[in-house]
C-alpha cells in the first residue's frame, strides 16, 4: 500500500519506519527539512509540500497525520483537503479532542479516521496500540498499515464511528494518570516507611508474577535503576494534563464518578506547587513511555 505521512517527529517517524519495514511505500512530508531527509534515508519518498505529497500519492490517497493536536491539525487539513475526495482516507494519529475529531470528520472531503495512539516512542520496536474511530470501509482499507504500525492484528481495532477512537484514547490517558498515581503513592510509602528498601529490587520482584505487574511497573524498575531509590535530582513536577482534564470534564457531563482519575489529575496540577515523591516518580515515568523531558531539581 502507498501511504502518505505528514508529521515526522518521534511518533511520525515510527509510523514511517514500521510501514516501510512491512513493505509499504511511504511518501513523507514535514515542515522540518531534516526530518524529511531522515525519512528519505530510511526509504521514504520525500515530498516538498502537502500538495506535492498529495500529487505523488495519486488516486485513492491514504494519508496519516501525526502532527500536534490543535491548530496544527486544522492547518494541515486546510492544505490537504483541496486535494481529497470521498474515496480518500485521512488518519489523525494525534491526541485530538474527540469532539474536534467529529467536527473535522464532518468537514473533511475524505473519510476521516480518528486514531488514538498509545505506546509512545518507547514502542518503536514492539508497535503501538491503536484505537480507531470512523467508517468501517476506511478502517478495513487501512488494516494492512495498522497491522504494521501496531503490535500486530491484535494491537488495533475499530472502536466505533467518528470520534470514538480519540474518545477511548482520552479515557485511556485518564486511567494512565490513576495508575501512575497508585504506583507513586505505593513507592512513596515504601520510601518513607519502616524499612530501608531498595526500590529497584521491590519493583523487579513485583514484576515477576505479582498481581500488579505491568509495563508501567517495569518503567518504575528502570527509573530506580537509573536514578536510585531516592530518584536523585528528579523534580516533583508532572507536565501535561490536557487529556486527563478532558476525561474529568466528560465524567461530569455523563455523571459518572471517577474519583481516582480526578485525584490523579489534581495531584498533577498540585505538583506545580510543592514536592512529593509520588509525583517525582510520575515525572520520571513519563520519560519511560513517552520520552518526555525529565524536569530536574536545580543544583
TrEMBL record:
Its EC number is 1.1.1.343. It comes from the Archaea. The active site is at residues 169, 176. NAD(+) binds at residues 7-12, 67-69, 95. GO terms for molecular function: NAD+ binding; NADP binding; phosphogluconate dehydrogenase (decarboxylating) activity. Keywords: Gluconate utilization, NAD, Oxidoreductase. Pathway: Carbohydrate degradation; pentose phosphate pathway. GO terms for biological process: D-gluconate metabolic process; pentose-phosphate shunt, oxidative branch. Residues 165-299 form the 6-phosphogluconate dehydrogenase C-terminal domain. Pfam families: 6PGD, NAD_binding_2. Substrate binds at residues 95, 118-120, 172-173, 177, 268. It catalyses: 6-phospho-D-gluconate + NAD(+) = D-ribulose 5-phosphate + CO2 + NADH. PANTHER family: 6-PHOSPHOGLUCONATE DEHYDROGENASE (PTHR11811). Catalyzes the oxidative decarboxylation of 6-phosphogluconate to ribulose 5-phosphate and CO(2), with concomitant reduction of NAD to NADH. Homotetramer. Belongs to the 6-phosphogluconate dehydrogenase family. This is 6-phosphogluconate dehydrogenase, NAD(+)-dependent, decarboxylating. It comes from Halohasta litchfieldiae.
Amino acid at each position: 500500500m502507498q501511504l502518505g505521512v505528514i508529521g515526522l517527529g518521534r511518533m511520525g517517524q515510527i509510523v514511517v519506519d514500521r510501514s516501510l519495514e512491512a513493505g509499504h511505500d511511504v511518501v513523507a512530508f514535514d515542515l522540518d527539512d531534516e526530518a524529511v531527509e531522515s525519512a528519505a534515508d530510511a526509504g521514504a519518498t520525500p515530498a516538498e509540500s502537502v500538495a506535492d505529497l498529495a500529487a505523488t500519492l495519486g488516486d485513492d490517497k491514504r494519508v496519516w497525520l501525526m502532527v500536534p493536536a490543535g491548530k496544527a491539525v486544522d492547518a494541515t487539513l486546510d492544505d490537504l483537503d483541496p486535494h481529497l475526495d470521498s474515496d480518500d482516507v485521512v488518519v489523525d494519529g494525534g491526541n485530538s479532542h474527540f469532539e474536534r475529531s467529529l467536527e473535522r470528520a464532518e468537514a473533511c472531503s475524505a473519510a476521516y479516521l480518528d486514531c488514538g495512539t498509545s505506546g509512545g516512542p518507547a514502542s518503536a520496536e514492539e508497535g503501538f496500540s491503536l484505537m480507531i474511530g470512523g467508517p468501517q470501509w476506511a478502517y478495513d482499507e487501512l488494516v494492512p498499515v495498522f497491522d504494521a504500525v501496531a503490535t500486530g492484528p491484535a494491537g488495533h481495532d475499530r472502536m466505533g464511528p467518528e470520534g470514538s477512537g480519540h474518545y477511548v484514547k482520552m479515557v485511556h490517558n485518564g486511567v494512565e494518570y490513576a495508575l501512575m498515581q497508585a504506583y507513586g503513592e505505593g513507592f512513596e510509602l515504601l520510601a518513607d516507611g519502616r524499612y530501608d528498601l531498595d526500590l529497584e529490587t521491590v519493583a523487579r520482584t513485583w514484576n515477576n508474577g505479582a498481581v500488579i505487574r505491568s509495563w508501567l511497573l517495569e518503567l518504575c524498575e528502570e527509573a530506580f535503576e537509573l536514578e536510585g531509590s531516592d530518584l536523585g535530582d528528579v523534580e516533583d513536577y508532572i507536565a501535561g494534563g490536557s487529556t486527563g482534564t478532558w476525561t474529568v470534564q466528560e465524567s461530569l457531563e455523563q455523571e459518572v464518578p471517577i474519583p481516582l482519575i480526578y485525584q490523579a489529575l489534581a495531584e498533577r496540577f498540585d505538583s506545580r506547587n510543592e514536592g512529593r515523591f509520588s509525583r517525582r516518580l510520575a515525572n520520571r515515568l513519563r520519560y519511560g513511555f513517552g520520552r518526555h523531558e525529565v524536569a530536574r531539581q536545580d543544583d
